[in-house]
């Protein structure tokens, strides 16, 4: 016996489960059953009302066992997911925090002053620079070395620092 369902099926909503009955390695019968599952898991829930201006921290959430309303809209799974994000709109207290509720906020914006780090195994140099594009932690952005006026690419480390690979 084997069973399956369409890859994009929302397992929290009614769907059809295909069941195949095998005899001697061949499909003897194939049936479809209308199925509804109750899917629960430990999820983050807003401990207070969260506004679009808020940076969400560990104190703003609590973890609870809750029934999911959809498997196609996943909840936030880790606190790291929230590091450079803010709510897209107001989130009510007690609401499950879904990944789709958040937007990435640039750590560095175009025109920001940044510290450029040039580093290899034996040498570390820092100098002043200016961001020529916006980005979040780990993003590759264009920057200008203010001493030489050269444009370079750098990876954002934090809100004031970008590492230039050379």
Structure description:
By secondary structure, this protein is mainly β. The protein folds into three domains: 10-35, no CATH class; 40-104, Alpha-Beta Complex (Type Iii Antifreeze Protein Isoform Hplc 12), CATH 3.90.1210; 113-164, SH3 type barrels (Roll), CATH 2.30.30. 0% of the residues lie in helices and 44% in strands. The protein is built from no helices and twelve strands. It has strands spanning 2-4, 15-23, 26-35, 40-46, 61-67, 85-87, 102-104, 113-119, 124-131, 140-145, 151-156, 161-164. The strands form four sheets. Strands 8-9-10-11-12 form a five-stranded mixed beta barrel. Strands 1-2-3 form a three-stranded antiparallel β-sheet, with no helix packed on it. It has a two-stranded antiparallel ribbon with strand order 4-5. Strand 2 and strand 3 (26-35) form a beta hairpin. The chain is elongated. The relative contact order is 0.13.
């Amino acid at each position: 016996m084997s069973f399956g369902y369409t890859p994009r099926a929302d397992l929290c909503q009614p769907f059809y489960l295909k069941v195949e009955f095998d005899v001697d390695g061949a499909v003897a019968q194939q049936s479809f059953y209308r199925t509804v599952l109750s899917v629960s898991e430990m999820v983050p829930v807003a401990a207070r009302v969260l506004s679009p201006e808020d940076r969400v921290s560990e104190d703003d959430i609590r973890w609870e066992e809750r029934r999911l309303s959809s498997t196609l809209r996943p909840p936030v799974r880790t606190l790291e997911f929230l590091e450079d994000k803010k709510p897209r709109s107001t989130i009510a207290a007690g609401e499950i925090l879904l990944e789709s509720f958040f937007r990435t906020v640039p750590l560095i914006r175009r025109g920001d002053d940044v510290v450029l780090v040039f580093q290899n195994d034996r040498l570390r140099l820092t100098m002043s620079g200016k961001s020529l594009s916006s980005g979040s932690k780990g993003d590759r952005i264009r920057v200008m070395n203010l001493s030489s006026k050269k444009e370079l690419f750098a990876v954002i480390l934090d809100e004031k620092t970008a590492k230039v690979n050379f």
